[in-house]
């Protein structure tokens, strides 16, 4: 099996690269500079030349607030770029694996969101991600995997845990939102379950998160405790941060469908987070 990874410099792609090397799986990882998915001709010629069995799309525009003003770029990457990949993969017989977001939901459901729930995105970022999902399903019909993930963290600087450590260097008191609830998801968890789903030949849409859910505030409390950082945390409403993009209050997703397909019970989010923190040296 040969795998092509797009967006090679992102935290999820780096986790894939590390794991595929460990497993001695053949892969090619290309950065945005090497493969801009907005350019269809480049996408098609690259996939044709490399001839992968699987394309894992880690390219994304993830600036939630930035998408409110720079929505053209968000849609170009998250929708048009994904459309380009879908067309090329279908014509060249490659399976496409793509990642979406819990933000496709509006947060009004009383309980965990499942794959049958109707999306209703509140911001431009989420709308662009949902359009990307829809385009894949329209173009490919089958032989694709779309994983909705949430609050992704891992090695690197583009995640909540790293930001916490940086805020803690400058402040003794941290204000964290208590009314934003979802499921923190470690990149290593995503990679492990993605490869299992690939091995089992799964196709379709899945929510790929650990069990349980939490607020930003409770997640911050746990992370700082695990890191041995003693700071005062004050729970506040997310509205005081005046984000440009509206965010759902509750966007936690159920992992029941993929658990059943993979034949395993996932760990709770806090156990996954604990294992991540204690197994790595994080600069504080």
From TrEMBL:
Q: Does the keyword NADP apply?
A: yes
Q: What class of enzyme is it?
A: oxidoreductase
The reaction(s) catalysed by this protein are: dTDP-beta-L-rhamnose + NADP(+) = dTDP-4-dehydro-beta-L-rhamnose + NADPH + H(+)
Q: RmlD-like substrate binding domain spans which residues?
A: 1-277
Q: Any idea which GO molecular function terms this record carries?
A: dTDP-4-dehydrorhamnose reductase activity
Alphabetized, the UniProt keywords read: NADP, Oxidoreductase
For the biological process aspect of GO, one term held by this record is: dTDP-rhamnose biosynthetic process
Any one annotated GO CC term: cytosol
Q: Does the keyword Coiled coil apply?
A: no
- CDD domains associated with the record: dTDP_HR_like_SDR_e
Q: Which NCBIfam families match?
A: rmlD (TIGR01214)
Q: Relate the protein's function as given in its record.
A: Catalyzes the reduction of dTDP-6-deoxy-L-lyxo-4-hexulose to yield dTDP-L-rhamnose.
Q: What is this protein called?
A: dTDP-4-dehydrorhamnose reductase
Which organism encodes this protein? Thermodesulfobacterium geofontis
